Amino acid sequence: MKTRRSWPVLSAVAVVMLVATALFLPTGWAASPSMSSCRATHVVQLNQTASSIAVMYGITLADLVTANNLADPNHIYVGQRLCIPGSGTVAPTNGDLGICVSGQVIDKSHKGLAGLRVMAAMEGNPGLVAETDANGLFNFKDLLPGLWTFRVEVPDSWEAVTPAEFPVELAYGHGSCYPVRFKLNPLGCLIATKVDANGYPVQNWKIKAAGLVDPEGLTDPTGTVRFDGLIPGDYVVSEEVPYPWSALTPSSVKVAVHAAMADDDCARVEFKNELRPTTCVTGFKVDDQHRG
Length: 292
What we know:
By secondary structure, the chain is mainly β. Helix content is 13%, strand content 36%. The protein has three domains: 2-84, LysM domain (Membrane-bound Lytic Murein Transglycosylase D, Chain A, Roll); 99-185, Immunoglobulin-like; 188-275, Immunoglobulin-like, CATH 2.60.40. The strands form five sheets. The protein has a four-stranded mixed beta sheet, with no helix packed on it.
């Protein structure tokens, strides 16, 4: 009899506990949906919103909210698993038919530029690097959805016609690779050095270049002056030889400047001069009486 009378007491305690649990659930809590009825499951990534996820899968925000019992679609968190309902665009498996980016780096005449590095990065993921082929083409595949930044590495002497870096929001269901294109202006560089007869650098020596542009400058402590951003073509490089120096090499040289990917591609000129010894003569003027 004692055992039988204890059941109502235990049942009452259980009811109180269940009610208390319901009362103290955190605001915005929603029951987990049954994933068996989902055509896909999405794991929330950094910087994603409920709206952007809905767009990725070709469904409405309302459908996503309903399928996941979301109390507030503005409050989802990284790592949260969401049910993707309906019969919209099925997200491909990343690593098989994942998101891809196909691009090209071109010059101002729309000719592809080879051998340039293009970087792709998304916050929280390791960066990727691709190199342009002979036609300036590059591609990235098996990318995760989210905000990616693409950047082309511009050689020192070149200039970017389009921005060298820009963001792209990637999503499943795009239908084809996202296009990314950079336009650069390949320019050249010229490095001139000035040394004395013993090969030691000479500073503050004026050197000029004349061609499609006409830069000039003074040599630094290493005897070097560098001109970047030169339009490819022929240039005449000359030095000014002040007294009491004399030239040991021609003081004017014609060189061809090409688009330079690195310092080794810069046109180079070396001028060599020697400092001539100087003497002086002193004297005085006298009259016929040998007076000054």
